[in-house]
Amino acid sequence: EQDILAQLPLKGKEVLITAGPTYEAIDPVRFIGNHSSGKMGFELAIAAANLGANVTLVTGPTHLTIDHSLINVVPVVSAQDMFEAAHSYFKTSHIVICAAAVADYKPKYVAENKIKKNDATLTLELEKTKDVLASLGEIKQQQFLVGFALETNNEVENAKSKLKRKNLDLIVLNSLNDKGAGFKLETNKISLIFKNERLKNFPLKSKTEVAIDILNEIIPFIHA
Ligand code: CTP
Ligand code: CA
């Protein structure tokens, strides 16, 4: 007979997930954003909750909604908001998965009033945002920390260096080479790279199935 607990392997565990894009304000009516749908992070949240976890889902702007008693949705807008929200839940988390497509740069100055189209050209000065994932890696204790990597070339090497640089336990490499994987789509083809550099490739699957695959790979580390 199967132990009921074995069917809810994340019962009582706290899982923190970041999802979606961030919007970086230019002026009161404009922003810099990206095409992330938030789908991968939302699917991870649902999969973790279905495994019994208490989930905090820190999400940038998305049309997606979730109504699940084990998922606490924390909406944010900018990279700075996501940084603050993620840090406020980090300490008590057992698993942290950063699936958000955080803006790498934001306008250095946010115009107080709507910018008028006075001139033929407009130059925006941008500065780096805070790296949420890297900042969590710096203060990591018991947390199993997972990042994503989107690469177009030298995929595995670049992902490995991100894994090391950000002090991760696992990185999910999203393959762009395959049609049918990535932003705005319902499917993803991933490879997982663990801290010990073990590489595991997965076939093209729905994001729902990909989320389950990722969590199944994490579970043994949580119970170890
Ligand atoms: N990430 C983050 N905060 C940022 C930028 C990235 O938390 N400001 C996280 C993403 O959620 C993802 C991982 O870092 O889990 C890698 O994101 P990616 O864009 O692939 O890498 P970057 O470190 O931003 O480097 P680059 O875009 O130059 O490849
Ligand atoms: Ca980036």
Automatic annotation (TrEMBL):
Organism: Aurantibacter aestuarii
Presence of keyword Chloroplast: no
Residues the entry annotates as binding CTP: 104, 114, 148, 162, 166
GO cellular component: phosphopantothenoylcysteine decarboxylase complex
Residues of the full protein shown: 180 to 403 of 403
GO biological process: coenzyme A biosynthetic process; pantothenate catabolic process
Cofactor note: Binds 1 FMN per subunit.
Family note: In the C-terminal section; belongs to the PPC synthetase family.
Catalytic activity: N-[(R)-4-phosphopantothenoyl]-L-cysteine + H(+) = (R)-4'-phosphopantetheine + CO2; (R)-4'-phosphopantothenate + L-cysteine + CTP = N-[(R)-4-phosphopantothenoyl]-L-cysteine + CMP + diphosphate + H(+)
Keyword Magnesium listed: yes
Function: Catalyzes two sequential steps in the biosynthesis of coenzyme A. In the first step cysteine is conjugated to 4'-phosphopantothenate to form 4-phosphopantothenoylcysteine. In the second step the latter compound is decarboxylated to form 4'-phosphopantotheine.
Recorded metabolic or biological pathway in which this protein acts: Cofactor biosynthesis; coenzyme A biosynthesis; CoA from (R)-pantothenate: step 3/5; Cofactor biosynthesis; coenzyme A biosynthesis; CoA from (R)-pantothenate: step 2/5
Identification of the protein by name: Coenzyme A biosynthesis bifunctional protein CoaBC
